[in-house]
Amino acid sequence: MACIKRKHLEQYLEDIEVFENPKVELEQYPTKPHIASHMLYTMQASYGDVENKLIADLGCGCGALSLGAAMLGAGTVVGYDVDPDALEIWNANCAEMEITTCQAVLCDLTQGFPSYSFPKQFDTVIMNPPFGTKRKGIDMEFLQMALHMASTAVYSLHKTSTRDHVLSKAEKWGAKGEVLAELRYDLPASYRFHKKQTVDIEVDFIRFSFPKTKCEKVKS
Amino acid sequence: MKLLTHNVLSSKCLKGVSVGYPLRLNATDIKVVDVDYNSEFVSRMIPKINYSALYDAAQSIGHLNGLPDAVVDDFESNEDFLKAVHHVLLEVDIVSGDLECPESGRKFPITRGIPNMLVNENEVNEINGSNGYNN
Ligand SMILES: C[S@@+](CC[C@H](N)C(=O)[O-])C[C@H]1O[C@@H](n2cnc3c(N)ncnc32)[C@H](O)[C@@H]1O
To answer: pLDDT per residue over A127-143, tens digit each?
Structure first.
C-alpha cells in the first residue's frame, strides 16, 4: 500500500493550501513539505507506525501531517485544532486531494479535549505543536495529552534547547523519547520578534514510545 | 463527522460531568461516502472501539445497515461483519447536527462535518487544565 516514494509525498504536500492569515498567537505555520515527508516516511519505513493505523494529529492546522499520513496508507487520521479557519482549509484540502480517511475536531487542547476519551485508543499520535512561544508550556500540555492517547508511539517536534526538559518530563509520564533527527527549522520572523524574514531554529524530531513495564503503570 | 470520531469523543472536561460518554447524536444531514474497505484496519479497530456506543449511535440516526448488536466471536475472519462495521464506522458521515452531553445536556454543534467541542473557560473543570490522569 504505502508504496509512494518520499519524493512524491513531498510533491503532493506542496499542493495543499496553508494558513491564509496565520494567527500568531496560535503559532500557526505549516510543517514544510520537505520536513513533513521525511517525518512521515521515517514513521512508516522504520517503525511501521502509519499504514493501517488509527492516528491523531494534535494541532492539525491545514493538515500537512494528517494528509501526508493518509497518503501513506493510514487507516484513519483524526485531526484536532482550535482554529475553525484552519479546519475549513483542512476540509478543502481533503476534498481537493480526494482523501476520505481524515476527520477533524474543533477543540481547544488546553481545555483537556480529547484526553477524556479512553486512554491509548489511538495507535500513533503525530504533532507539530506550538512551541510555547506565546503560551508557555503548551508544547508540554500537547505532549502529555499525546502520550495519554497513543498506544504505540508519539512523534513530535520540540526545540532542541528544551531537549533535556522534554525527555525527562516524558520519562515521568511513562514514555521514552528518542531523538530521530535534528532539524533546522525556518520559523516565520513574527514568532521571534525578529527583523529578518525568517529565523532558523534548531528543532528535534522525537519518537516517544512506551517501555512495556512502565506502560502498565500509567493510571487511566 | 464519522461515527469513529463520535466513538472517541466525550464531554468529561465539563464542570460537574463525571463520565460524559457516549455523547448523544442528533443528525440533520447525513452523507454516505465511499471509503476503500481495509479489512486489516477494521478488524484492528474492533477491540479498540466502544462497540455498544457505536451500535447505539448508528441506531439513533437510522443507519445500522444490518450491524449486529454485539461483536461476533469470529470477527477477524468474518468478512460480512467487518464490512458492516466498516460501513457504519467510516462511511456514514454526519454533515450537520449536534452532539449532546448525556449528563448536562450541553450541545456541541456539528457544522460542515466538523464537531465543535469548544467550551467557555467557565464551563471546564479547573483541575483538568492539561489532562485527565495526573491528579
Ligand atoms: C505549528 S502549527 C502546525 C500545523 C500543522 N500541524 C502542520 O503541521 O502544518 C500549530 C497548530 O496548533 C494549533 N493550536 C494552537 N493552540 C492550540 C490549542 N490550544 N488547541 C488546539 N490547537 C491549537 C494552531 O492552530 C496550529 O494549527
So the answer is: 999 998 878 899 999 99
What helix, strand, coil percent values describe chain A, rounded to 5?
40, 25, 35
> Mean pLDDT in chain B?
91
Domain limits for position B74: 3-118
| Shortest-distance Cα residue to atom 16 of ligand 1 | A26
Mutation choice for B interface testing from A100, A111, A219 by most B CBs within 10 A: A111
| Closest-CA distance of chain A to residue B111, Å | 10
Decide: B73 and B90 in contact? Cβ < 8 Å: no
In whole angstroms, what is the distance from residue A146 CA to residue A155 CA?
9
Residue B129 forms part of a structural domain: no
Q: Go through A149-172 and write b for each residue having 16 or more CB atoms within 10 A of its CB, e for each that does not.
A: bbbbbbbbbbbbebbeebbebbee
Domain membership flag for residue B123: no
How big is the CA angle at A72 (ends A67 and A75), to the nearest 5 degrees?
Answer: 80
Whether B133 is in a domain gets the answer no
CB contact under 8 A, A144 and B131: yes
* CATH number, position B11: 2.20.25.10
Contact B112 A103 (CB under 8 A): no
**Residue predicted with more confidence, A198 or B43:** B43
Residue B128 lies in a domain: no
Residue A40's domain is classified under what CATH number? 3.40.50.150
pLDDT for the residue A95: 95
Q: Which domain holds residue A24?
A: 6-187+198-209
| A143 inside domain | yes
Angle subtended by helix axes A64-71 and A6-14, to nearest 10: 140
* Tally of structural domains, chain A: 1
Confidence of residue A200 (pLDDT cuts 50, 70, 90): confident
With the C-alpha atoms ordered A193, A17, A76, A31, is the resulting torsion angle positive or negative?
negative
Contact B129 A110 (CB under 8 A): yes
Work out the pLDDT band at A199, boundaries 50, 70, 90.
confident
